[in-house]
UniProtKB/TrEMBL annotation:
It comes from Latimeria chalumnae (Coelacanth). It comes from the Eukaryota. Pfam families: CENP-L. GO terms for cellular component: chromosome, centromeric region; nucleus. Keywords: Centromere, Chromosome, Nucleus. The keyword Nucleus applies. Signal peptide: none annotated. It is found in: Chromosome, Centromere; Nucleus. This is Centromere protein L. Its main location: nucleus. Belongs to the CENP-L/IML3 family.
Length: 330
């Protein structure tokens, strides 16, 4: 199969053969809670959590996986390794369990559940060894990915048919060709669909508002907003706000400690746009917000995200789980 054809499998929604969907209508809420998981510190593996931080992850949404089993993780590792090796050998059949060039490891990634209803996250790591392995050369990690559900929608999970496991989010880091192969294997093995998770400008503004005032382990960081100007040639604008300034502004707007409203988000952005106009005479409202950088996460409209603080990762995953679920249901 050509590379362009494989890419299409990742970039467009594919219709699964089994009817897993339920009659459930979803709208973007006018208010959101800033949630924290009480399960995070109980089950977290510090080494694995550190592995997730400060890497750029490409994010995708997944429909529920059919007949996924935690007891079969070793088998999945062998099957995926054989599939990747066969694809790299121009389709020559490879027996599962052989000594292969690629090795795959599926493992449970604890600490990312928001509720007991959520499925335990799964970490997938792919290593490769050179064709001519010398004693001083080690296997190299060439691709990583993880599946998770954090504070999944309770009503949706209750209506989900038996035999399905819900991981609405897939994050990947590594070779794009391997991302395509892993996506293809997931779809064929679990009869699911994979689609790029696009983050709208509206949801980027929510991220900027919800997490601007979060306390972090490190020194305070500025909040940065990146705008794209609809002109030719293309023009980008970067707006950096000092942490104390935006914190003071947000505290003057925000009413409830654990809940943010659409009105508060709009007021924050309007205030920042007005401040920018006073100094530069540029209407940011005529541009498109494409990226935000806060003390706990950076996120781009194309779905690229970088988690910066372990203690706030669940907060970010909660919103991304909501966005992925919306994408799947609509």
């Amino acid at each position: 199969m050509a590379s362009a054809q494989r890419s299409d499998l990742i970039e467009q929604t594919l219709v699964g053969r089994r009817a897993w969907a339920c009659s459930f209508f979803y709208q973007t809420p006018g208010r959101r809670k800033i949630r924290q998981s009480n399960l995070l510190t109980e089950n977290v593996d510090p080494e694995k959590m550190a592995f997730l931080l400060k890497k750029q992850w490409n994010s995708y949404s997944l429909t529920p996986l059919y007949r996924f089993s935690y007891a079969a993780l070793k088998s999945y590792s062998e099957q995926l390794a054989a599939f990747i090796t066969a694809e790299n050998q121009k389709g020559i059949a490879v027996e599962v369990g052989q000594n292969l060039r690629f090795k795959v490891a599926f493992s449970i990634l604890g600490g990312l559940k928001g509720t007991e209803q959520d499925s335990d996250a799964i970490l997938i790591q792919i290593t490769s060894k050179p064709q001519f392995l010398s004693p001083d050369k080690q296997e190299k990690l060439v691709w990583s990915g993880w599946l998770c559900c954090t504070h999944g929608d309770g009503e949706f999970l209750e209506k989900l048919a038996g035999g399905f496991t819900y991981f609405p989010l897939l994050f990947t880091n590594g070779r794009e060709s391997l991302t395509v192969l892993v996506g293809t294997w997931l779809m064929s093995t679990f009869d699911c669909c994979v689609k790029n998770l696009v983050i709208s400008s509206l949801n980027l503004t929510w991220m900027a508002a919800m997490w601007t005032g979060c306390n972090t382990e490190s020194s305070p960081c500025a909040t940065e907003l990146y705008f794209s100007v609809p002109c030719s040639p293309s023009l980008d604008i970067s707006f950096q706000i000092h942490p104390e300034d935006i914190k003071a502004l947000w505290e003057g707007i925000h009413q409830s400690g654990d809940e943010v409203t659409q009105e508060e988000v709009d007021l924050l952005m309007t205030s920042l746009e007005y401040h920018f106009y006073r100094h530069f005479r540029i209407h940011l409202s005529a541009t498109q917000l494409v990226k935000i950088a806060t003390p706990i996460v950076t996120a781009h409209c194309d779905g690229k995200v970088k988690f910066l603080q372990a203690e706030h990762t669940v907060k970010v995953l909660t919103l991304l789980t909501e966005l992925a679920t919306t994408l799947i249901l609509n």
